[in-house]
Specification:
228 residues; mainly beta; five-stranded antiparallel β-sheet; 2 helices; elongated; 39% strand
């Protein structure tokens, strides 16, 4: 495992972490912290926070399909969206088929081929053939459930990739969510400068994962200052 770029710290204050923020508290956001699961969930100032953005997957073939194959082995990609993905046969092939894939926002994704594992930032799956071939117009809806959008500590190795692997912001006040009970929290989510030495990194995070997290902070206009 790579050595972390910065050392994790505990029990920091907001003043140690936050060096600059937007006007009128615009950098901060009140959130709901997900209740603990078997124990209290404890978030401390400087922790990287994430949110549960999506839930499980439901696969629904259209009732009038000709083909008797199936879409299976479906898993979430790192940027899965909540909503309906439409997978439709656009070219019939003996013992196969070509399928269009459209995301919940209506954007076309790369096509899928029957029998070939499909991988993307949104979804991964495999379409199988069966006794009756797929016909043009056959369709399958892959529904990704909406998540709770409640806050947890960043988990770069989250499985499934429900959003808890992506940086939402930094914890701005210590909070404890009891086992099974949510709590109110506060995050720094945009337009800020923070001290690198006051970031609390998840245990076991790799250097590569830190690089990704820093890039996600930068996307939110949160700059990490390494000195001063």
């Amino acid at each position: 495992m790579s050595k972390p770029v910065y050392k994790s710290t505990q029990n920091r204050t907001l003043g140690q972490l936050l060096k600059h923020e937007g006007p009128l508290g615009s950098s901060r956001k009140s959130v709901t912290v997900l209740g603990g699961n078997g124990a209290s969930r404890v978030l401390t100032v400087g922790m990287l926070a994430a949110a549960v953005l999506v839930g499980g997957i439901t696969i629904t073939p259209a009732g009038g399909n000709t083909g008797t194959g199936a879409l299976g082995a479906a898993t979430l990609g790192p940027k899965a969206q909540a909503g309906d993905y439409k997978v439709t046969c656009i070219s019939a092939v003996a013992n196969g088929g070509v399928f269009s894939v459209v995301d919940p926002s209506g954007n076309a994704m790369p096509p899928a081929l029957a029998g070939v594992p499909y991988t993307s930032n949104d979804l991964n799956f495999t379409i199988t053939d069966a006794a009756t071939d797929w016909a043009v117009g056959d369709s399958i809806t892959v529904t990704v459930a909406d998540g709770s959008h409640k806050v947890v500590e960043l988990s770069p190795d989250a499985d499934p990739l429900d959003g808890s692997h992506r940086v939402l912001g930094l914890v701005a006040q210590d909070v404890t969510a009891p086992d099974g009970a949510d709590a109110s929290g506060l995050l720094i989510v945009e337009d800020a400068i923070v001290a690198a030495g006051s970031i609390v990194w998840p245990a076991g995070i790799t250097e590569a994962q830190q690089t990704v997290a820093l890039a996600e902070l930068a996307e939110r206009k949160i700059r990490v200052r390494t000195s001063g």
